[in-house]
Amino acid sequence: MTTHGTTHSGSSTTFDPWYDHYADRTAGLSASEVRALFAVASRPEVVSLAGGMPFVSALPPELVTASLARVMRDSGPQALQYGSGQGTPELREHILEIMALEGIRGSVDDVVVTTGSQQALDLVTKLFIDPGDVVLAEAPSYVGAIGVFRSYQAEIAHVMMDADGLIPSSLRESIAALKAAGKTIKFLYTIPTFHNPAGVTLSWQRRIEILEICRSNGILVLEDNPYGLLYFDSPPPHAMRSVEAEGVIYLGSFSKTLAPGFRVGWALAPHAIREKLILANESAILSPSAFSQYAILEYLRGADWRAQINTFRSVYRERRDAMLTALQEHLPEMSWTVPTGGFYVWLNLPPNLDSKEMLPRAVKELVAYTPGTAFYADGTGRQHIRLSFCYPTPDAIRLGVRRLTAVINGELELLNTFANTGQLEAVHESAHVSNPPPNIN
Ligand SMILES: Cc1ncc(COP(=O)(O)O)c(C=O)c1O
Questions:
Q1: Is the CB of residue 342 below 6 angstroms from any atom belonging to ligand 1?
Q2: 168-173, long-range: CB within 8 Å, 24+ apart, which pairs?
């Protein structure tokens, strides 16, 4: 709650003398639910099915230390120096090789290295969005992208998905309705492969159809693909960028196939956009970290990175299996998505259950998840939960699902007991943990 220069957060009250000075766009800045949860869920006794942290311990440390040693031996002065605003040419060559695994062919000149794909999201939004412009995004969508779009005062229009990803007919309808309302649609933001948070993958046929819809409506596609190489069985359909070069900005990242600590991602942009992207990158950060880029370059040269991605795949496949088996065993009457890669399962709760309301009770029972509301710009999503299987061990996942089941069953019992009495809210109030996590909103 905010009143005249005084902000209240939890029990603390701070006076901000600059309260009236902030730019309008800062109204879109709020602590994400995921971020707030990291603090709570990091307590060791809590099983966290909340965050999307890669399991970096599956990366042998010696592979990294050997790369770092070679960086300092062979390229120390360059690695410690400012670099090019576009990223080092050698790394961009390797990035082309990696993207080729998903059917993409492009020019090294059109790759722009960024500080994680998160920064690429920020740059693209900065380049295209004026306040009030519309970004189309799946319902639900990646919480970090929603935050960026909000911070540039975009209007976010969610488009329905099903088990095969974004629904083309819903996209058509949304575009028609927005155009009829006189809105300016700037781009479609999509995570077609192993969606965060929904866990689903857009079928090949739909990829083609959606590209066609966007092409005929003059809408740019922003394809965000950090998980595409983390498939569990067979490879997913090729990237949308493999079909269409001029109308797609493609984002990739080393965060999930190597480690997020390097903070290196990239954009492959249509030639016409590329120059503006480089200028925006230089204006934001001068140059992406040369040190991280050299470290990754040495890793790609010296380590069997394909084998390492296979290792990640088998770690995550085992965890996905543990989660699906536990859900089937404990919550058979509920429904969830079945991911064929990536990090996430999307759980649908029975009607009347509220994932956001239920969270403090879950944390009290030592399990954390991300409520569906984090992934919608419009406050909906209460009937959904994102469960991440990337970080906890299979045993912890099983324990977490058992705990979650107890919480859900407890809520259902309460609902049955207090149905029609109007007392459930009062019960929720008294059931909140004594020290609720801050900023879960
Ligand atoms: C869909 C999606 N896009 C972008 C990102 C940001 O990743 P990076 O570490 O490359 O900035 C994430 C991180 O979880 C993500 O899930």
A1: no
A2: 168/206, 168/209, 168/210, 168/213, 171/136, 171/210, 171/213, 172/213
